[in-house]
Amino acid sequence: DYSPFEFKFTGSVDENMKFAGQGLFSYVPSAVYVRNKLWTPEIQNLSATFVKGVPEGVAAITHANGATEKVFLKHGVPVGLGINNVDHVVVSYNNGIKGHPVWRFVTGVDVISVELDKEFVVFARVLGVEKILVVSGHEGYTLDKIRWNCVRGLLKPEYRLEGYEKKYELIKEFPPVIDEKDQILYQMIKFHIDILYELKHKEEVFKDIDEAWIRNKAKIIEKQKIKGNLDNVYVKHQFEYDPNGNHIRDKTCKKLGSYRLLPDSLPVRALVSYPGSGNTWLRDLVEAGTGLTTGDERDWAHRSSQNTHKPGADLLVKSHHMQYLREVEKTDQGREDLQWRMQNVVYFSGGGVLLIRNPYDAIRSSWNHFQEYEGDIDVDVGTPKFQSFAMNEVQKWIDLIVDWVLLSPHLVVVHYEMLKNNQEKEVRKIMKFFGIKQNEDRFMCLENQRFEWWKRTKKVLKKNPYSETVNLKFRELIEIAQKLLKEYHHEPLPIHLYPYHE
To answer: What is the pLDDT of residues 97-118, one digit of tens each?
Structure first.
């Protein structure tokens, strides 16, 4: 007598018991047994206008994965177009069957793709430049133009590959953490970023940066303040005190400040890391070594009025590859939205510094940060709640690495463990990568500074706090990250310095 279906409606019923009006038809459980076999319905609910008991016209369908699709129904059968708000696709239906073309788009980025029977075509517009990519099998080709045809209400591109088209380097192999359905999205974003980098690379100013260049920019800012165009001049003096809090007497060090420039003075680049990986520490070191400031997250602050981000004013901008409020409030510990992650890489033109710390220590540090225990570190470490936190967070750790390594055309990788061993070497590596001239006075002053005021005093744990299941997951994802870094010719993970990793 039990029914897994539920029907709510507002309307009327005719003499034949046929319903007319607004209705919501739902499957109550996520799965049911049909003839002793477990069956998972593809659709969780259907909201539509019913005529003679049959849904007609525009309807909203919620699928089992949570995606909501707007479709047009004729006698209860999808026809015409269907728009999926989660996967960001527009599909065409022919008598209830999905067909091609399938249009895919990215919110906030001028790039779309059209999925055909055996190929897909990507259209990107970057800084007024439009380019076309055809992906056929495992090969990519750029085209100058195509023709269009209308198929069941959707535009379908028509073209012919002649064999002389310019080849484009696709992402050849995807790590297993990327769903197959999302691979097209990665190819789309890579194409867009590559165009962006090609156009903006000519505008790079890093090679011109030295102490004289910075001082000249600072003078311009001072003049703007005198004219009343600026409220203040932001300069940090990292060499004013020694690690013990005493004033530094060395005049050479005391005069070395780090300046925040006017907006649009520099390309917008990221210092991206998983939380608890030493982002603040490396920011201080980079500022002291270069004479330029770094900035907070681009969406920092609970209110937009508190957001201090000004594109191009800082050398690097902090990013945890997570939306700031979501990261702070921790109301949802699931993976960060894929579309937002793609937007984040695009915002920085795929360029910057990727700071990686081993997940054992980084996730433990992140746990302590979000527990907000005053003076009591590592509370509840090892508990079931901690294990669940670790399983969720390590997915974000690997997502960050995968997204930036796959998509970035201009990236330098720094490992926290190597930074601890030789901070000067790692700062010099960053400056060399960007082409910034190195000031030996700064490194002389930096020699006795560690900038570790932010570090918490952690307990020395007698045993590995992670469960066997979590440890297996960590090892699996560390291997994926290691393979990817080597494949893209980045410095590999210093696994010999990782705790608990055998």
So the answer is: 777 778 888 888 999 998 888 8
